[in-house]
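Example record used in the benchmark description.
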Amino acid sequence: MVLPYPELMKLERNFSHSWNERDLMIYALGLGMPSDPVDERQLAYVYEERLAVLPTFLSTIVVGRSPVAFAGIDYTTVLHGEIAVTLHKSIPTRGEALVQSRIAGAWDKGAGKGAVFRDHSDLYLAGEQAPFASVVNTAFGRSEGGFGGPREGQPMPHPIPQRDPDRIVTLSTSRQQALLYRQTGDLNPLHVDPASARAAGFREPILHGLCTFGICQRAVLGEYCGYAADALKQIGVRFTGIVYPGDSIRVEMWRDGEVVSFEAFAVERAQKVIGNGKAVLAE
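Model output (C-alpha cells):
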C-alpha cells in the first residue's frame, strides 16, 4: 500500500555511483552507436582515446534507485511515464557521483484509477557544492490511487508543434539490441526472457524504454549537434509505446530556437513510442 501523501512527500534517498570509460562505451554500443564505424563523430563515444559522454547515460544511474521504490508501490502495475536529463556542466568520463533524490510530486487519480509519482535527483561530483546534472523521472502506478494526494497540478507535457516536421531520421535496432543494452545494468527479465515477456502480455521481449530514449538522443545529436554531446543541455521524453528489438524507429523533429521538439514511431507497426520529446541545445 502506498504511504499516505504527507509521508510520501518526505521520502528522500541518497546514494553514490561510480563509472568509468568502459561503462560509457558499453552504453553507447547498447544504443547502436556508431551507426557507421568510421564516422569519427560517433566513434568518439566508443573509443577511449577521445571519449565523449552521452547525456542520457545518467538515466542508467538514477532509474530504479529513487525514493519511489520505498513508497509502498506495487511495481507489477507500474509503467515508466517520463524522464528528463538536464546538464549543468560536462560529465566526466570517469568519476563518482553522490545522488540526492527526493519525491517531487505525487498525483492521486482516485482509488482504483491509478497515480503518478515524480522524483527529482541531483548528481554531485566529490567535493563540489553544485550539481553537475539533474534527472527527473515519472512513473504511473495503474492501481495505486487512493493515498490522499492531489488530483490536479501535474505538469503538462511539452507540446509538439502543429506543422510538418523539420527533419525526419529513421534509425534501426537489431534483434540483439535489448541483450546489448541490458549490459548497462537493467537486468529486468522482460527484456530477455520470452516467458516473462509473454506473461506480461507481449509477444516477445521488448526493448528497454531508456534505450529508446537514448536512440532519440542519437537522432537529435546527429541532426542538430554534429554528434557533439556538449551541444545538448537537456533532453526529456514521455513514453507512449513499446519497441521490439529489430523495429525501425522514425524520429520526427521540429526546431524552434534552442528547443528541438520530437516524437518517435515504431515504423513497422505504425505505433508512437515516444511523445512530447523536448531537447534544449546549448547556446
